[in-house]
Write a structure and sequence with these properties.
Blueprint (H helix, E strand, L loop, with lengths): L1 H12 L4 H8 L3 E5 L3 E6 L2 H10 L1 H10 L6 E6 L50 H11 L8 E5 L6 H15 L5 E5 H13 L3 H9 L4 E5 L8 H16 L3 E6 L11 H7 L3 E4 L5 H14 L6 H10 L4 H17 L6 H11 L8 H12 L3 H4 L6 H17 L4 H7 L4 H15 L3 H17 L2
Parallel strand pairs: 2-3, 4-7, 4-8, 5-6, 6-7
Antiparallel strand pairs: 1-2
Helix pairs in contact: 1-4, 5-6, 7-8, 11-12, 11-13, 12-14, 13-14, 15-17, 15-20, 17-19, 18-19
Length: 449
């Protein structure tokens, strides 16, 4: 199995930028396997969490290609062995030492993706204001707005800009105490601090030992009242000291269920920006950049085909480029318009003519729920769970607007957005949910055949 893992790493190295591979994948070690699991070791908790969130799907795909798709992947923290020359009892670092941040010891939560910089962000009409605001926050000097809230759906670049700002600040001033963390990590850290009777240290860390707070995905604070209260106090302390604060969210705070009015007011008290879906010209720029990164030469006709049909988000365009490259190499086929059309058919749900009625029937049959209960006001899990899956599948497999999807289940626009974001987030760690979505998606694929 060790040889298979080495083979998988070799495959991944050819599909990722060199810096990303050397930073996140190369340090992973093979620890063992049993009948159900492949156990891999990461050098620390931050690396483990980052790999699970960003590269687990890629590892699973390559594991399947290697003939071991029946195994699940389990990550454990396994610090690298010390070299024999280490004669002093120097403690292991708490996290990865990032190649572009040498010497920044003792700074927690720096899980920056080296590819997420301002130089690598494609600017267009849909994101120009968000880009300019992020860059202004990153500049040395006074920031007049105290906070910056960036609103965007998944895959449009809000995390890219947040991390770009953090890295730019550290490049300008290496001594800045920058904390980049997701709302979920913030919540888990607070809970852990309470359990270990270290809540005062937690408060000091974010209120007194922080110059810049970059808080991602605040929509996951919905319903977490204690975390909302603690974050509110933290924001007050940072604002009073004129510290820089940046948030990202899939939804406006006022549209988040169970979000306190007090915290919602604080989050929107500064500058608020949005990132919309990229327009045609921006999509062309993105596709050309992604193709260049993969050493691919695409004709103007192919770029036009892809830019016209792939209008959801950046990830969809990245998938198309990866798919084109893989299909061309594996089938030894020339990249021409016909190959591009095949890729589009696989990625654009409009080619399948799947309707919300199809998804409604499938979900209700699968979960044995009366269709009327999806439209009911009941919040019981037995109805809310399939309703959330319905919202997610409709957004992925149909071209219906969010408003029409919401109307089909008697819900608001923001509720459908929140439900689909919640399902997408949970799929990263919930294997059972991921398998359910894969099963239902396959059933939907069969509808169009």
């Amino acid at each position: 199995m060790l040889s298979i893992w080495k083979e998988i790493k070799g495959r991944i190295s050819s599909s990722l930028p060199k810096n990303s591979f050397s930073l996140w994948i190369d340090p992973i070690s093979f620890l063992g396997k049993d009948e159900k699991n492949l156990v891999l070791g990461c050098p620390n908790r931050f690396a483990r969490n980052w790999v699970m969130e960003n590269y687990l799907g890629l590892i699973r795909d390559n594991l399947h290609k290697a003939g071991a798709g029946h195994l699940d992947v389990v990550f454990e923290v396994q610090p690298p062995k010390r070299k024999s020359s280490d004669s002093h009892n120097t403690p292991e670092p708490a996290q990865l030492t990032l190649p572009n941040l040498q010497g920044h010891t003792g700074r927690a939560n720096l899980c920056f993706n080296r590819d997420f910089t301002f130089d690598r962000f494609i600017v267009g009409r849909s994101n120009e204001f968000a880009y300019s605001a992020s860059k202004a926050l990153a500049r040395t000097g006074q920031w007049d707005y105290h906070t910056l809230l960036m609103l965007a759906h998944t895959g449009l670049g809000k995390t890219h800009l947040s991390q770009a700002a953090g890295q730019a600040i550290l490049e300008e001033n290496p001594q800045s105490r920058v904390y980049y963390i997701t709302a979920e990590q913030f919540t888990n850290e607070m809970i852990s601090s309470i359990k270990k009777n270290r809540i005062e240290a937690f408060k000091d860390k974010y209120r007194r030992c922080c110059d810049v707070l970059l808080l991602d995905e605040i929509h996951f604070l919905s319903g977490k009242q204690k975390t909302q209260i603690e974050l509110g106090y933290t924001l007050d302390a940072l604002t009073n000291e004129n510290k820089k604060i940046m948030f990202t969210s899939a939804l406006p705070p006022k549209d988040l269920p169970h979000m306190s009015k007090e915290l919602s007011s604080r989050l929107t008290s500064g500058l608020v920006t949005t990132i919309e879906r990229p327009d045609y010209d921006t999509r062309v720029k993105i596709l050309k950049r992604k193709a260049s990164e993969h050493n691919m030469r695409l004709s103007g006709e192919i770029i036009h085909l892809l830019a016209t049909r792939l209008n959801r988000d950046v990830r969809q365009m990245e998938s198309a480029i990866n798919y084109l490259k893989a299909k061309s190499q594996l089938l030894k086929a020339r990249i021409d318009p016909d190959l591009a059309k095949d890729v589009i058919k696989c990625l654009v749900s409009g080619e399948s003519f799947i309707t919300t009625k199809d998804i409604n029937k499938l979900v209700c049959d699968n979960f044995k729920v009366d269709p009327q209960m999806l439209r009911s006001k009941s919040r019981k899990k037995v109805f809310a769970y399939p309703r959330n899956i319905y919202s997610y599948l409709c957004r992925i497999h149909t071209n219906e607007t969010v408003e029409k999807i919401a109307g089909s289940i008697n819900r608001s626009h923001s509720t459908v957005l929140y439900a689909s974001e919640l399902v997408e987030h949970k799929m990263k760690t919930d294997r059972e949910l991921r398998n359910q979505i894969d099963f239902l998606s396959q059933r939907l694929e069969n509808i169009k055949k």
